[in-house]
Amino acid sequence: METTTALVHFATALAIGLLLGLEREHSTAGQPVRPAGSRTFSLLSLVGAVAAALAPAMVLIVVGAAGLLVIAWYVLSAQISSEPDLGATTEVAAIVAVLLGALAWSHPTWAVPIAVAVVALLAAKRPLHRFATRLVTDDDIADAIRLFVVAFVIFPLLPDRPLGPYGVLNPSRIWLLVIAITLIGWAGYVAVRALGERQGLVLVGFLGGFVSASATTVVLARRTGGNVRHAVLPAVLTASVATLVQLIALTAVVNPAIAVRLLPASAAGAAVLLGEAGWLAWHTRRTGGDSGSERTDTPDAPSAFQRPLSLRVTISLTLVVLILLLTATRAAAALLGARGVLAAAFVGGLADAHSASVAASSLGGTVVPISVALLGVGMALLSNTLIKIVLAAVAGGLRFATRLAVLLVLPAAAVAGGIVLVM
């Protein structure tokens, strides 16, 4: 290795150690014992780089010596400190500094982003501690374990080839869809738990839309009390924005070409929805249409935000609804051609726009032309919009549903126009 390159690698190792040391020195300020700071971590990382430069075996020796050193640090800290839960984060970080220094010698482009991720993890102590002790429940831990099993144990074992009637059932693709639906629901759930529903009905509507836009519309409509100027209207609109975002994410799993063509239409519809929601929120505050007494943390808060969609329910819905819908849509395409696909998409959208859209998208470019698949997605979105208006009428009254229907005309037209333009 050239001298200039070697010096750059050593400098990278030194910078990594300094970065880790500064964070640790800041985090442990005020403690009776601070075994390592910016200088110590810099030296540890540099020693790791020197060891890697000399011989791979030297790295093992240096890591072993650093291990003995951090054990001594921990014993000393335990004898002096009166805290019952001392922790060993700094000691473990010291070992990581040595390993990152060694990695910086051979692969500095790997070591730097890993070091940044480690520093970010160390700096997130308080929010992580709050999240783990106050926000996460036993059910959440169990669900997370199941999710990891589904994503990292079961998924790699599934065959990636077409099976079943008409050859449309791909176990790997179907399971990937299960993972995608679960992760999207979890993202909204975690955000609500971390930020709280007090941040506003609009936030709750948007995040709840990832779980179920129809269910979110029903729950929010029940909060109007017949007041069509209530602040839940912007929340219902943002739930529809989540529907469009989720549509792109899910169709990208089964047919990226369809997702790319749907992107302009979804973006146009989302822009109109956000514009209407913003105007309504401003107008409500300006005219005093919302008393502000309603809060999202009341006992009748949406049950969809109390826990994400369970894995069992997700699998059941995916296997029963999605597989049957795929088969039914494919059979309709075989028997009735394009008309069968459009009819199946419209009927399926009454229950779930995403499942019907995924079913139609999976056939695009193979069984039916892409233009027909795009029309099928449009039919699913149309029928789902109609069912939202019906549900809003049942839960919030005819006046509320009428106002919502008027507000949904422009977004629907924007989505329809975007689909027609790319066909």
TrEMBL record:
Keywords: Membrane, Transmembrane, Transmembrane helix
Regions crossing the membrane: 6-22, 43-76, 96-123, 144-159, 174-192, 201-221, 233-255, 262-282, 309-326, 333-351, 363-383, 404-422
Keyword Transmembrane helix: yes
Acetylation recorded as keyword: no
Positions of the DUF4010 domain: 179-396
MgtC/SapB/SrpB/YhiD N-terminal domain location: 11-131
Domain of life per record: Bacteria
Name of this protein: MgtC/SapB family protein
